[in-house]
From TrEMBL:
Domain PPM-type phosphatase: 170-383
Superkingdom of source: Bacteria
GO molecular function, one term: phosphatase activity
Record-given protein name: Phosphatase
Lineage, uppermost ranks: Bacteria, Bacillati, Actinomycetota, Actinomycetes, Kitasatosporales
Pfam family, one: SpoIIE
Assigned keywords, A-Z: Hydrolase
Signal peptide: none
Record SMART domains: PP2C_SIG
Amino acid sequence: MNRFAAAERALRRAAPHRLLDAVRQALREHYGAHAVELFLADYGMTVLQPVSGPPHAPEPQSVHNTPAGRAFGAQQPFVEDARKDPVRVHLPVTVRGDRLGVLTVTLPGGEHLTDRLPELAEIAEVLGHEVIVAERDTDLYLQVRRKDRLTLAAEMQWQLLPGRSCSRPEYDLGAQLEPAYAIFGDNFDWSGTADRLLLYVTNGMGEGIEASLLTNLAVNALRNARRAGLSLADQAALADQAVYAHYRGRRYLSVLMFDFELATGRARVVDAGSPQLLRLRAGTVERVTFDAQLPLGMFEETDYVAQEFHVEPGDRLVFVSDGVYAVASPGGEAYGDTALTRAIQATRLLPAAEVPRAILRELTGHRGTSVPDDDAMVVCLDWRGR
């Protein structure tokens, strides 16, 4: 058995809470590693938190100005100084485009380091898959990701999300919520098949646990309809009925829904509320509007109609909630289209997974305070097509 296969087998056989121990032992035995540490990105995507516990836990690493953060941002292995012996290598831990963290390995230096990097990068990818599976059976990795305590509403919202980024040959997706540790109503969801991408951007009404409960009901109703094979308009109608049946119009929820054909770029759209879409095409940013329909749950048995939309290779679509475009500066100026256009232009060279966090940093500067008054959500879709 070769050394990569041995490391992979060790990870697959490890107990859910012992993945770091397993990869540490495998890398020491088969690659001569002196030290191995796993860092996971926190909910705010600002810090890489160590999985190792006291008394030997390393310090958290910033995603902005550290070697580990450089590997996380670039999604490429980063070698601190190949001339040193031993040498530290930082490997992104990513699953199908969803950025989980970084595996840091201290190895003997020498001319064979470059030859080992592809295998080590694959081991980091296998580790990421095992972390995702292990989260069904242990809270360890979910606990590591939080540098502060989550509110109950935020706990419910993060458990509802599909991930924070996703990559396929036809598209890249990235998304982020703010305040990460106290979010309550905003949400995003996506699902890909061999031929389609379904994307939902949700802006829940209210605050705290009530907003989270409303969003959970609506998102699960949409998933139930989607998994039953219903059309986009029928998904909206079923979720509308579910929300109205429970709240009788006292609470309702805005959602922007897309069903993309991967082969053609054609899409069906249902616009049921306030999330907004801006498109960057050939260097120009413009707002895209659709026929507005009633939010889910406002009235009984609302009929929804899907309309046509087309996306071209090279397009970047940026979706924002009202907690972004309606935010006021200390002087009372709304963030709005002008500031959003500037932010989208300024981040045009970043990958989709980095764009939401960058725009939300711009929003914090506009707002003038670090703590927002409302949920803020940004979703970025880069379309390549086939």
